User: Which sequence fits this backbone?
């Protein structure tokens, strides 16, 4: 082939690839826009504050207050975060500072496998194991009767689902703390634990926060597993042993009646949009922190 | 033939296979990495660029085939004429420029394919299709790089299985197979054992009869062994240049004297 | 100093316990699925579609869901590959230099990666309404494609970033264009890594339920065209578990076992390719 032809091919390929890049980036906007357009009719009849800050959810009467779903979402995610963060932090410190190669060679593939397990499997396990555990052991401990299908059950299952991502990000963050800095601390006579507390955790502070935020936002949108164990009762939950009804579960559970009630599809799309906005918001925060850290290093 | 025309305009020394540099400046962000470089490199001989690390040797070399383009945050001003064509001119085609120059980098980077395909890669890109022709090319250039006898029975094994020294000679064969006029070497022996280094140096001494060779090196003894012409750089400037013998035995500049004696390195 | 020594010992134990809990939860999940599912496993489960009265405990299997899942995942993986590969090559060959634009692209992809699959599902649903599509294999494939594009791009991007700059320079210095370098050198260099990325995406597509819930529908038949609805394993599990019949619930466990084995097989083979990739790295 002539060199002109090859160069032309190169230039065409450049343009085509760039087009695909834009296509992918624009997807983000298109998703938001698509959901917004579908939710739009609702804004005309119901005020935004009624939608976001009311707990009255009676689709037949056209009342679509989503507050209890939003609160439920944060409850479940909060419980999951509270359980997952200390465990993941301890595990990540162990893997990055103490564990020898052999242990890591065993542990990291297992965490990979955990990351690959589908949501529905977690859900079925939750139904078989966690729900009875909450019903028969945890609830009586607090002197409450519970069916077991509760925010706590959802939170426990969810916490296991976010282990891998939180650990991955934490390990990445710990890797960014320069070896020199650790050695400097160690050569000043600090033992390993002091080094971890005074140098590693302090230096990695923002990164740890971003790992938590990323895990949190992953948990926000998890659907099927939570749906299967959380109880799905439309009510403002007051404690984790009660049933809840997070946004993703609500969207998934009601798709069947989507087109039978007026405005119902708009309401569900609005729920999806709200979820989208919340997740994107937290994601952006976490990514900004991580990018800052990366920049500092390079 | 336009090349010839330009040649007469710019500089009589800019013959075929030569590199002429006019007022070349390179900035990495705010850092002034190359300052006002003006020099004509002699053809059909070995030019060595020497100087302490970080003095801009490699940057200068990378300007010749515009690999400098792929460095983050770079600004280049001035002219580099190769065969009389300004390679930084907006209409210059980077692929055509690079085809005229073979490159040996600090450590060998065999392409992720077989020994045979590594050598055939360039010719195939540039339009050689017949299998028999390709076979000929591969054999010829592997012999040229003194590698043929070691690999002729396993041409289809991945190039990554060769030893580092063999890989570097493969890279040489691969570079020669695109029929360049110029060979650029960026500390080409720095990753090699003494015997492989010797191989490469011997090869350069043979090849200079047909090619213009430019080698960046930080080994003064290597420069002494192979260079016909020397350029001494310091902090982004050319301090002194001239026939190798003169520079090594009678340096005029103080910094060159100090470097040659080993006071600065 | 002594206080720190004690503290270190305590935390050392805690760290090992935490790591133990995390691993134990995985083993517990797998063991539960095997223990509950194995008694209900039968050849019928994987070789037959649901027959009449299947959801009341009568004969049949979940072949419809197995095939449906493979169709959905296979179709979306191929589509996603066609979109991801150009993006990754663009980022790693054409825009190898750090720039505000490449940072922007990667950030956008990171955010897309974080969007929950239920949102993709809802979006897929709005697309369906827009184009007048019914729940179908095609709609499911499109939605899943959107979901796995960021996953695939990220995984490929990671391996491409490990290509040493010198290799690009070697290719360029032989007069190769960027496109030739991308297709003949970069892809070949990272082939095992690319295969791994494809497998990871395929695994995600097989396991995802929330995005196909709205879009692919569910059916007891094996779809014969793109416009027919398609069943999927996660949804089959979900629906079977929702029935009050113990026999059907048992089949949900068996289906969960099938899905888990499928995912494990994908995960193990992707590990194999990753290992090969590491070995080939020079």
Assistant:
């Amino acid at each position: 082939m002539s060199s002109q032809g090859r160069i032309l091919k190169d230039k065409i390929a450049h343009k085509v690839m760039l087009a695909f890049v834009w296509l992918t980036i624009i997807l983000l906007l298109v998703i938001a826009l698509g959901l917004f357009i579908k939710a739009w009719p609702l804004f005309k009849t119901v005020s935004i504050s009624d939608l976001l800050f009311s707990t009255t959810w009676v689709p037949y009467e056209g009342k679509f207050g989503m507050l209890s779903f939003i609160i439920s979402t944060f409850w479940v995610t909060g419980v999951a975060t509270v359980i997952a963060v200390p465990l993941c932090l301890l595990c990540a410190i162990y893997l990055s500072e103490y564990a020898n190669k052999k242990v890591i060679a065993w542990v990291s593939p297992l965490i990979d496998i955990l990351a690959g397990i589908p949501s529905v499997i977690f859900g079925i396990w939750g139904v078989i194991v966690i729900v009875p555990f909450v019903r028969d052991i945890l609830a009586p401990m607090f002197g409450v009767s519970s069916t077991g299908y509760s925010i706590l059950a959802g939170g426990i299952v969810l916490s296991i689902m976010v282990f891998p991502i939180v650990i991955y990000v934490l390990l990445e963050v710990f890797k960014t703390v320069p070896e020199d800095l650790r050695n400097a601390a160690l050569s000043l006579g600090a033992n390993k634990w002091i080094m971890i507390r005074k140098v590693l955790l302090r230096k990695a502070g923002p990164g740890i926060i971003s790992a938590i935020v990323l895990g949190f936002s992953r948990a926000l949108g998890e659907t099927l597993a939570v749906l299967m164990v959380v109880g799905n009762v439309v009510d403002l939950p007051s404690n984790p042993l009660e049933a809840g009804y997070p946004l993703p579960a609500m969207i998934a559970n009601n798709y069947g009646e989507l087109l039978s009630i007026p405005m119902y599809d708009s309401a569900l799309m609005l729920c999806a949009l709200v979820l989208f906005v919340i997740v994107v918001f937290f994601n952006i925060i976490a990514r900004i922190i991580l990018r800052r850290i990366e920049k500092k290093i390079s | 033939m336009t090349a010839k025309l330009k040649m007469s305009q710019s500089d009589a020394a800019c013959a075929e296979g030569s590199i002429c540099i006019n007022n070349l400046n390179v900035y990495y962000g705010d850092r002034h990495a190359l300052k006002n470089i003006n020099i004509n490199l002699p053809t059909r001989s070995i030019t060595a660029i020497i100087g302490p690390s970080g003095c801009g040797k490699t940057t200068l070399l990378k300007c010749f085939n515009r690999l400098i383009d792929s460095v983050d945050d770079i600004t280049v001003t001035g002219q580099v004429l190769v065969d009389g064509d300004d390679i930084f001119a907006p209409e210059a085609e980077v692929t055509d420029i690079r085809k005229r120059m073979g490159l040996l980098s600090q450590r060998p980077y065999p392409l992720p394919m077989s020994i045979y395909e590594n050598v055939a890669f360039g010719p195939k890109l540039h339009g050689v299709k017949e299998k028999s022709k390709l076979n000929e090319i591969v054999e010829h250039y592997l012999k040229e790089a003194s590698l043929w006898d070691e690999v002729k029975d396993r041409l289809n094994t991945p190039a990554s299985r060769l030893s580092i020294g063999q890989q570097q000679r493969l890279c040489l064969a691969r570079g020669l197979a695109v029929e360049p006029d110029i060979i650029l070497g960026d500390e080409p022996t720095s990753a090699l054992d003494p015997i492989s280094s010797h191989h490469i140096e011997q090869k350069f001494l043979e090849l200079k009869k047909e090619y213009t060779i430019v080698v960046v090196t930080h080994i003064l003894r290597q420069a002494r062994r192979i260079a016909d012409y020397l350029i001494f750089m310091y902090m982004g400037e050319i301090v002194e240049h001239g026939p190798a013998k003169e520079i090594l035995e009678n340096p005029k500049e103080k910094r060159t004297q100090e470097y040659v004696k080993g006071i600065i390195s | 100093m002594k206080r720190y020594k004690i503290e270190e010992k305590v935390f050392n134990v805690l760290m090992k316990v935490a790591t133990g809990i995390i691993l134990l939860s995985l083993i517990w999940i797998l063991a539960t699925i095997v223990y509950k599912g194995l008694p209900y496993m039968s050849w019928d489960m994987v070789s037959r579609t649901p027959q009449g009265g299947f959801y009341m405990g009568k004969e049949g299997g979940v072949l419809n869901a197995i095939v449906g899942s493979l169709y959905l995942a296979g179709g979306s993986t191929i589509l996603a590959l066609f979109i991801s590969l150009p993006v990754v090559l663009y980022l790693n060959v054409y825009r190898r230099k750090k720039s505000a634009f490449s940072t922007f692209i990667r950030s956008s992809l990171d955010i897309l990666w974080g969007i929950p699959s239920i949102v993709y599902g809802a979006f897929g649903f709005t697309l369906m309404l827009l184009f007048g599509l019914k729940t179908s294999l095609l709609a499911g494939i499109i939605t899943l494609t959107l979901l796995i594009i960021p996953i695939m791009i990220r995984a490929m991007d990671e391996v491409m970033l490990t290509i040493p700059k010198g290799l690009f320079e070697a290719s360029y210095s032989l007069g190769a264009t960027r496109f030739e370098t991308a297709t003949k050198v970069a892809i070949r260099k990272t082939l095992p890594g690319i295969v791994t990325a494809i497998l990871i995406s395929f695994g995600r597509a097989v396991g995802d339920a929330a995005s196909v819930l709205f879009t692919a529908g569910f059916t007891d038949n094996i779809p014969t065209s793109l416009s027919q609805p398609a069943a999927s394993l996660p949804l089959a599990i979900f629906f079977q578990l929702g029935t009050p019949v113990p026999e059907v619930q048992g089949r949900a466990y068996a289906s969960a076992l099938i899905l888990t084995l499928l995912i494990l097989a994908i995960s193990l083979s992707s590990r194999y390719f990753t290992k090969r990739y590491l070995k080939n790295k020079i």
